[in-house]
Specification:
- Two copies of one chain form a homodimer.
- By secondary structure, chain A is of the alpha+beta class.
- Chain A has five helices and five strands; from the N terminus they run αααββββαβα.
- At the A-B interface, strand 3, helix 4, strand 5 and helix 5 of A face strand 3, helix 4, strand 5 and helix 5 of B.
- Strand 5 of chain A pairs antiparallel with strand 5 of chain B, so a sheet runs across the interface.
- Chain A binds a DNA duplex through helix 1 and helix 3.
DNA sequence: AACAATAATGATAATTGTTACTATTATTAT
DNA sequence: ATAATAATAGTAACAATTATCATTATTGTT
């Protein structure tokens, strides 16, 4: 990583993101990093989340519910958004490369990839 | 539509959305409606876009590129976002209902639907 | 270990996209 | 025409995010 120096704050952000499956927003990352670094700034959180997402170390999820969410697992995978509680959950399914082929049919551009967001009712909301 | 009255401004917004394939942002809708209604307000545009999207008369697209976009065609269909120019293009492919079945495997919640956004290089950016 | 180069920070201001408020105007049913 | 009420324009407020900048931390070099 040319021109990038280590920082305790960035490491704390990575550590927190890797410790949770909750797909937190920048605000939630901030709240949690502040437990160990009480005077970290929200700007630092945003700056590092952007840096890490640009580097491909984390994933940014735009679910259309106000703020972006982040995922410490950078490997492409699929997500589910609960229509009821807004929770975002990882889905354990294989990459659906074949849909890129479907999309490419009759399209003059080049398909490089896709993002999919499934929605419905999550397990917790189903049983309560 | 209970409790909803006609308005020239709302009709102009619908007319503009149905006249374009460009998936405009609220700001772009505003700019274009102002050609015929020079003192329409941006708040009116937002209010009506939200109303129409809630009623299912138009589609709201959240592509993660700053502002939401809108589509005068409310029938569910798929979109492509150009990594280079940011243009959003309709894809003419069939609904991929089968991916909901894939997603449901091993998931304890209920899958009700999905949104997919393909990305890559659009035809115009490819040839220039 | 001190030093120099420069990346990162905290604090805060600024920006952007969007929503809320309110007095006035437009639509619609009677 | 009238009355009821939805919609408007204009503006203020808001939330999420980015920019600015003086200070601090990291890192490679002597």
């Amino acid at each position: 990583m040319a021109g990038v120096k280590f920082s305790r704050q960035r490491q704390a952000i990575i550590d927190y993101l890797c410790s949770t499956k909750e797909h937190p927003t920048a605000e939630t990352v901030y709240t949690n990093v502040r437990i160990n670094y009480p005077n970290v700034s929200l700007g630092t959180v945003y700056r590092n989340l952007n840096l890490l997402a640009d580097e491909g170390e984390i994933l940014r999820l735009t679910c259309g519910d106000g703020s972006d969410r982040f995922d410490g697992n950078p490997k492409p995978h699929y997500h589910f958004l609960c229509n009821n509680c807004g929770r975002v959950i990882d889905l354990d399914i294989e990459p659906m490369n074949h849909i890129d082929v479907l999309a490419a049919a009759g399209f003059d551009g080049t398909i490089e990839g896709h993002t999919v967001l499934f929605n419905g009712t999550c397990p917790k909301c189903k049983t309560s």
